[in-house]
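This section describes the prediction task in plain terms. A model, or a person checking by hand, is given the sequence of a single protein chain and must write out its three-dimensional structure as a string of tokens. No templates, partner chains or ligands are provided. The sample shown here is typical of the held-out split.
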Amino acid sequence: MLKRLFVYDRLFSSLLVVLLTSVFLIMFYGLDLYYQFSKIDDNIQCIKYTEQYDYGIRFSPELFTANGRVPFKKGIVIYRTFFPMGDSAFNHNNIDILWEQNEPLLEQIEYNSGYDSLRGVGEHLCVLSDKWKKSIIVKENEEFIDILGTEFKVIGYFAPLLIDGSDERCLIIGDSLTPEELCRIAVFTDGQFIYKSASYSGIMEDFENWLQNYSLSENINFELAIDMVMDSNISIAKMYEGYAKKIFVALSIFCIINTFYLSFVWGKKKEKTLVIKKIYGYSNRYLVKDMLKEIALFELISITSAGLITLIYEIAFRNLSEWTSILIKGMPIVIAVISCITVVYLISQIIWIIRSQPVDVLRFSE
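The expected answer:
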């Protein structure tokens, strides 16, 4: 059969394989996009703090030197500053320093082996988003990243809030820094203090009073009822999630139409061959079996080709676990749907051929 298809009719057979492979590739990356936004939506649902404040502040170096890192003792306090990350020299990124933690963060974190919380002293520690994975240095099976000339050990990664490679969060564990290192890393000029809590509420005045440990009251401004950067990420994710679902539906419809069309073209091409075989005494059962075997072979070659192409791409540029996840969760359904559409159409066409008179089909095909 392979010789008949790819030697005597190699142009048409090759084109059919290429087109079917493209259908499987389109659906694979359509599913990839769909599952990415599904995970993002699950993560967003977890991040629901009862209380959030976001204050701009201009530090008074003298007050910080005199008071040190004063505990607030309620909720989570984060200081956000801006400087280049990794090997970047020009782009200033939002860098969060976990100033104080009195309750768990609601942001989902996938910890590396050996870590299960944000507590830590004695080593410089941080949690990153997926954007920074390309800047990681691996030493003795542990991951590090350079932050302003200091190596920080990566203890985990944030579950994504944006599509792969675009989430650029970085959280430095404040307890892993000495006061001197904190002074250097925090870049005490203009920054933001963010307060978050799932337990406390109605303590804005207390937090404003606490901020005066580091700034004169007239330098405290931009009070917001949300974490502005996080809220912006969530808004972007929700906006594009709607687009992603529509894109996936459009891709699915396109692939179904394309599959139907390919089945139609291939079936029409086989009409004359099937009728000639019928004239020479081949049984209807044989004709059905032969036609289905051919299309099954085309689809098997196509899905194998698509699998190899995506596997090589994922190994080279992305995460192999995502490839496996998509294959397990979605691709069997895609294969089943495409196969069913093909089989249903071809069977209907075979029935038409079986019921037709050979002379009519041959006259029409001339």
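For orientation: The two ends are 25 Å apart (CA to CA).
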